[in-house]
Design a protein that fits this description.
Chain lengths: 254, 561
C-alpha cells in the first residue's frame, strides 16, 4: 500500500513538473548576440525548413481586387503552413477567413511562378496565377530582405531566459525590429511600415536553431483600442528531404 | 425508529430524480448536430476541411454512449446501483467541464508535450488541439451519460415488482428518446438566443457585480454542470435504500473489451482514422489515409467481433446471451433497428448540411441563424418520430409487429425518395420540414413494434439488457452512418465539383464565381444522393421486418422508444 502511495506521489510530481511550462528562469549567459547569430546561420544554411505562421489578435486583411463580397465581410489571413526548399521553391497551405468562415488554399511557388487552388476560390482546381502578389520564395532567405537578414537587424537585444515551449527547450531573445523589414517574416501581409515592433526569437537550447519568432504589431490608428496583432512563426524540420514540383493545371483537382 | 428509504416510499420520485441526468445525457446526443458548423467556426477552423474530424464530436458521443450502455448495467449488478450511477454522473459532469475547457493553456500544453515527448512529432496547431479536446470531452461525457441508461433501467427493476415494471421501463425509454429528440432544437435555439441576447446576459451579470463571458455554444455544456450537481445530490439521497444486488458471477471483461474494440474499429474503419486524417495535408491525403487504414481497421473490427462472439458463447455470465438471437423476432428486430438508426442519421446530417450551404453570407449572425434553422428542421424529423411511436404501438397490438414496422419503413422510404428528388438549393424550408416529417413518422411507426417484439421474446430477467440493446443497436446504426457517409459525402463533393469545374474559364474572377456555383450544386447533389442511400436502407430494413411474426394483442406493451 505504501509503495502504491509512493508511486502515486511520484506520478503526481512528474505530472506537475511536466506542466510547469511557463516558468522563465533568467540566465546571464549565453550571450544573446552569439545565440542569435548561431540561429541565423543555421537558418541561412538550411536546404529546407517548415514555416508556420499563425496570426492572433487584430485581423490581418488581405486586399483582393475584383471580388464581389457580401457586405460586412472581408478576406483576412489566419494561418499558413509551408515548406521552403532552397533556392526558390515553396509549398504552402494558407487559411484565410471570409467573414467568420475559414477556408484554405494551397500554394506552390517555383521561382516567380505561382500555382494555387482552393475549395472556395477555384473549386480545388490548380490555377497558375499570382496568389501572393510580388512574393518570391527566395525572398524568405534573401540577403537582404529575407528572414535571416531581418533577424540580424534586431536592436536592443536581450536574453530573457530559458523557456519551455511545450516540451521544446529554448532560449528567449527579445528585441525590436523596424516594421519595414518584416515583409518576408509576415509573407508581405503586415500593415505596419514605420516604427519599431517588439520581437521575440526562441532558439533551441541544444542545436541552436531558431524554432519560433513572435512579432507584435500594433492595431491600426483608427482602432487603437483593439488588441495588437501577434504573428507567431514556427520554424521546424530543418534540412528534411523535400521535393516541390509544379502541379497538374490541366487535370482539374489533382 | 428509522424512516423508510425513499426507494420504498416513493419509487416514482426516485425514478424521476435518476431520469433527469438520463434526459440531459440524451439531450447531449444531438445537441451538437445543429451547432457543429458554429463550433468549427468559433474554433477558427475551415468548415469543409474539418467537418470530417469535427463529426467525431457527434459520432464519438454516439459510439461511447452505445459502448458504455452495453456493460454498465452489469457493472451495477456487481458493484451496486448507487455507486455506479453516481460515478457515471460524475464522469458525465467531468466530460461536460472538459468540453468547456478546450482552450485551457495547461491542457493544450500537456497535449503538445505528449506529441513531442511521447509520439516524437510536432504537435498539431492550437486550433486542432482545441477541436481534439472538444471531441475528447464529448467522449468522456458520453461514457457517463450512456452508462446511466442501463443502470436506470436496472433501477426500475429494483424499484418496481415485475407486474408493474412495464410502465417505468417505458418511462426510461421515453425520457431517453425525448432527450435526443429535443437536443438539436435546444442547441439551435439556445445558440441563436446567445447570439441575439448574449450581451444582455453579460450586462445583467455585470449589474450584479459578476463578470461572465458572452454565452456561446460552450455554455450549453457548462449548464449541464449545475443541473447534474443537483441531480447528484438528489440521487445520493434517493438511492440510499436501494438494496445492493447479489454479487452473481464476474464482470465479462473480455466480452466488453472485444465488443468495444469491434465498435470502435467499425466506426473508424468506415470513416477515416481521425489521427491520420488530422495529419493529412489535403483531401487527397485524407482519402489515402482512409483507404489505407480502412480495410485494416474493418478486418480488426471483424476479428474483435468474432472474438466477442467466442467469449460470449463460453463465459458463464456473458454481456449478451447469444441464445437471445435464436428468436427470429429478436434477430429481425435487431437488424431493422440498426437500419432505422442508420436512416435516422441520414436525416439528422442532411438538413444541417443543406442549411449551411445555403447561408447568404458568412457572418456570425448567419451561422447562428443556420444552427437555429437546422434545429427547427431536425425537430420536424424527430418530434413526429417520437409521436408516431404511439400509433405504432397501437397498430402493433391490433395487427402484430410486422404490419406497422413494414408500413413505417415504406413511409420513411417514400419520404427519403421525395427529399432526394426535390431538394434544391432554393427549396422552401416548409417543404423540407414537411418531407422530414414524413420520414420521421415512418421511422417512428417502427419504434414500438420493434421494441416490443424484442422485449416479449426474451426471458424475464433479460429485459433490462434487451431494452438497452435496442437503444444500442440504433445508436450503432447512427454511428456507422455518420462515419461512413461523411467520408462518402466529402469524396463525392470533391468529384462533383471537379466535374463541374472541368470546363470552367481560366480567369480568376470567372473561376471564383464558377467555383461557388459548382460547390452549391455539388452539395445539393450529394445531399440528394444520401437520401437515396436512405431509400436503399429502408428497403433492406423492410426485408428484415417482413420476418417479424406475432405481436397481436401483445402480452405486455412497453412503449420503449
Amino acid at each position: 500500500m505504501r509503495a502504491l502511495k509512493l508511486l502515486l506521489v511520484l506520478a503526481l510530481a512528474v505530472l506537475l513538473a511536466a506542466c510547469g511550462g511557463d516558468d522563465i528562469t533568467p540566465e546571464p549567459t549565453p550571450d544573446p548576440q552569439t545565440l542569435l547569430a548561431e540561429g541565423i546561420t543555421q537558418l541561412q544554411d538550411a536546404t529546407s525548413f517548415k514555416y508556420e505562421v499563425d496570426v492572433s489578435g487584430y485581423r490581418v486583411n488581405v486586399p483582393i481586387a475584383g471580388l464581389d463580397l457580401p457586405e460586412g465581410t472581408g478576406v483576412s489571413f489566419k494561418y499558413a503552413s509551408g515548406t521552403f526548399q532552397v533556392p526558390d521553391r515553396l509549398s504552402a497551405h494558407v487559411q484565410f477567413r471570409l467573414g467568420v468562415l475559414s477556408s484554405t488554399a494551397e500554394l506552390i511557388a517555383l521561382g516567380g511562378t505561382q500555382y494555387f487552388r482552393g475549395e472556395l476560390i477555384t473549386g480545388n482546381r490548380w490555377l497558375q496565377g499570382e496568389f501572393l502578389p510580388a512574393f518570391l520564395p527566395s525572398s524568405l532567405v534573401a540577403q537582404p530582405g529575407g528572414v535571416p537578414h531581418t533577424l540580424s537587424t534586431i536592436r536592443d537585444l536581450a536574453l530573457v531566459g530559458r523557456k519551455d515551449l511545450d516540451g521544446l527547450s529554448a532560449y528567449q531573445v527579445r528585441g525590436r525590429v523596424e516594421a519595414g523589414r518584416v515583409f518576408s517574416l509576415t509573407l508581405g501581409l503586415s500593415r505596419a511600415t514605420a516604427g519599431l515592433l517588439d520581437i521575440d526569437v526562441f532558439i533551441h537550447t541544444q542545436n541552436r536553431r531558431v524554432v519560433r519568432i513572435s512579432l507584435v504589431e500594433p492595431p491600426p490608428e483608427w482602432a487603437a483600442d483593439s488588441e495588437p496583432t501577434t504573428w507567431q512563426i514556427n520554424i521546424s524540420e530543418y534540412n528534411a528531404p523535400v521535393s516541390i514540383t509544379a502541379p497538374d493545371t490541366d487535370g482539374g483537382a489533382s | 425508529m428509522t424512516a423508510r428509504p425513499a426507494a420504498q416510499r416513493a419509487p416514482w420520485l426516485v425514478l424521476a430524480i435518476v431520469s433527469l441526468p438520463v434526459f440531459i445525457g440524451a439531450l447531449d446526443l444531438t445537441i451538437i448536430s445543429a451547432v457543429l458548423p458554429e463550433v468549427i467556426v468559433s474554433l477558427d477552423l475551415p468548415v469543409k476541411e474539418y467537418l470530417d474530424r469535427a463529426s467525431w464530436a457527434v459520432s464519438g458521443y454516439l459510439l461511447a454512449y452505445a459502448i458504455s450502455m452495453t456493460f454498465a448495467g452489469r457493472l451495477s449488478d456487481l458493484f451496486g446501483r448507487r455507486a455506479v450511477y453516481i460515478t457515471c454522473l460524475l464522469i458525465f459532469m467531468a466530460g461536460s467541464y472538459l468540453v468547456t475547457t478546450y482552450d485551457s493553456p495547461t491542457l493544450n500544453s500537456a497535449v503538445a508535450r505528449f506529441y513531442r515527448q511521447v509520439l516524437d512529432e510536432p504537435p498539431p496547431r492550437l486550433e486542432e488541439r482545441y477541436l481534439n479536446l472538444v471531441i475528447f470531452g464529448r467522449v468522456v461525457q458520453a461514457f457517463g451519460a450512456g452508462a446511466m441508461v442501463p443502470v436506470t433501467i436496472a433501477l426500475a427493476g429494483d424499484l418496481f415488482p415485475p407486474e408493474r415494471r412495464a410502465r417505468p421501463l417505458g418511462v426510461v425509454g421515453a425520457v431517453d428518446t425525448l432527450g435526443w429528440v429535443l437536443g438539436h432544437l435546444y442547441g439551435g435555439v439556445m445558440v441563436r438566443l446567445f447570439g441575439q441576447h448574449g450581451d444582455a446576459v453579460v450586462d445583467a451579470f455585470a449589474g450584479l457585480g459578476v463578470s461572465v463571458a458572452r454565452p456561446s455554444w460552450e455554455t450549453l455544456f457548462l449548464l449541464n454542470i449545475p443541473v447534474s450537481a443537483l441531480a447528484l445530490v438528489g440521487a445520493w439521497w434517493a438511492l440510499r435504500g436501494i438494496p445492493r444486488p447479489r454479487r452473481a458471477g464476474r464482470f465479462d471483461v473480455l466480452g466488453t473489451l472485444f465488443l468495444t474494440l469491434a465498435l470502435i474499429g467499425l466506426s473508424l474503419g468506415l470513416g477515416a482514422n481521425p489521427e491520420a486524417a488530422g495529419s493529412a495535408e489535403s483531401f487527397e491525403d485524407l482519402e489515402r489515409t482512409a483507404s489505407h487504414y480502412g480495410p485494416t481497421l474493418l478486418i480488426g473490427a471483424a476479428l474483435a467481433f468474432l472474438l466477442f462472439l467466442l467469449v460470449e458463447a463460453r463465459v458463464s455470465h456473458p454481456l449478451i446471451r447469444l441464445g437471445m438471437f435464436r428468436s427470429r423476432n429478436v434477430s429481425a428486430s435487431s437488424l431493422t433497428n440498426f437500419l432505422v438508426g442508420f436512416c435516422l442519421a441520414i436525416g439528422l446530417v442532411s438538413a444541417p448540411l443543406l442549411v449551411n450551404f445555403r447561408m447568404d453570407s458568412p457572418t456570425s449572425q448567419d451561422v447562428q441563424y443556420a444552427a437555429y434553422t437546422a434545429g427547427l428542421l431536425l425537430s420536424g424529423l424527430t418530434v413526429p418520430m417520437a409521436l408516431a411511436a404511439i400509433p405504432g404501438g397501437w397498430l402493433s397490438e391490433r395487427f402484430g409487429y410486422r404490419l406497422p414496422t413494414a408500413l413505417g419503413l415504406l413511409v420513411a422510404g417514400i419520404g427519403f425518395a421525395l427529399t432526394g428528388a426535390t431538394w434544391q438549393s432554393d427549396t422552401s424550408y416548409w417543404l423540407m420540414g414537411a418531407q422530414m416529417a414524413i420520414i420521421g413518422v415512418g421511422l417512428g411507426l417502427t419504434i414500438s413494434p420493434i421494441g416490443t417484439a424484442v422485449l416479449n421474446d426474451v426471458r424475464e430477467g433479460e429485459r433490462g439488457i434487451a431494452a438497452a440493446m435496442i437503444l444500442v443497436l440504433r445508436l450503432v446504426g447512427m454511428t456507422v452512418a455518420i462515419s461512413s457517409l461523411t467520408i462518402y459525402a466529402l469524396d463525392r463533393f470533391d468529384v462533383l465539383v471537379a466535374e463541374r469545374m472541368a470546363g470552367a474559364a481560366a480567369s480568376l474572377e470567372e473561376t471564383v464565381l464558377a467555383s461557388q456555383t459548382a460547390s452549391l450544386e455539388a452539395a445539393v447533389d450529394v445531399i440528394n444522393e444520401l437520401q437515396f442511400v436512405g431509400v436503399a436502407a429502408t428497403l433492406i430494413a423492410l426485408a428484415a421486418a417482413l420476418l417479424l411474426r406475432g405481436g397481436r394483442a401483445a402480452r405486455e406493451r412497453v412503449p420503449l422508444a
